[in-house]
């Protein structure tokens, strides 16, 4: 796989930005290729970057207490790393390429410069990232709720079994 034209396409939260604004934003970051299995973000490590998926797909996975949980699938037009951009800390999950994938990355400092220099376009990005965060929090909350319900069902099943049958 080779790099496509080094400009951000009209996809995801930047779909409604003008070509000139997307082209300018492109110059604030860098374009990359990830091969299958390559981790662009590693759980527990800070990265201070925001990623945009141009092509291909990634999986966001979290390891806890021996379990490996798929948090979500990331495809063309999706953003990755928005939590660390707003709350620089350690990454909450690992993001791995599932196929040859092209992505663009911008540091927090460069994103702040872009937003300060191009406030209207910057607002589009900020609102889009807030929407992305909101959707992902909602999705994870739903998954946690489902897990809680499953735990309650399992607990009731095991408590209803007489001790001689357990």
What do you see in this structure?
This protein is an alpha+beta fold. It has a single domain (12-159), classed as Jelly Rolls (Sandwich). The chain has four helices and eight strands. The strands form two sheets. It has a four-stranded antiparallel beta sheet. A hairpin with a 2-residue loop joins β4 and β5 (67-75). α3 (108-117) packs across α4. The mean pLDDT is 88.
Give a brief outline of the structure.
This protein is 39% helix and 27% strand. It is an alpha+beta fold. The strands form 2 sheets. Strands 1-8-3-6 form a 4-stranded antiparallel beta sheet. A 4-stranded antiparallel beta sheet has the order 2-7-4-5, with no helix packed on it.
Oligomeric composition of the shown chains: single chain
Instruction: Give the termini distance in whole angstroms.
Output: 55 Å
Number of E strands: 8
Our estimate of the beta-strand percent is: 25-35%
Helix/strand-derived category reads: alpha+beta
Question: Helicity range of the residues?
Answer: 25-40%
- The CATH architecture would be Sandwich
Give the domain tally.
1
Q: What overall form do the CA principal axes indicate?
A: elongated
Describe the strand arrangement of the main beta sheet, using strand numbers: 1-8-3-6
The fourth-level CATH homologous superfamily is Jelly Rolls
Radius of gyration: 19 Å
Average pLDDT works out at 88
Largest sheet: 4 strands, antiparallel
In terms of per-residue confidence, which ranges show pLDDT below 50 for 5 or more consecutive residues? none
Kindly identify the CATH topology. Answer: Jelly Rolls
What is the chain-wise order of helices and strands? HEEEEEEHEEHH
